[in-house]
Amino acid sequence: DVKVTQSSRYLVKRTGEKVFLECVQDMDHENMFWYRQDPGLGLRLIYFSYDVKMKEKGDIPEGYSVSREKKERFSLILESASTNQTSMYLCASSSRQSNEKLFFGSGTQLSVL
Amino acid sequence: RKEVEQDPGPFNVPEGATVAFNCTYSNSASQSFFWYRQDCRKEPKLLMSVYSSGNEDGRFTAQLNRASQYISLLIRDSKLSDSATYLCVVKERYSTLTFGKGTMLLVSP
Question: Which DSSP string corresponds to A19-88?
Answer without folding.
Answer: EEE-EEESS--SEEEEEEEETTTEEEEEEEESSTT--EE-S--TTEEEEEEETTEEEEEESS--GGG-EE
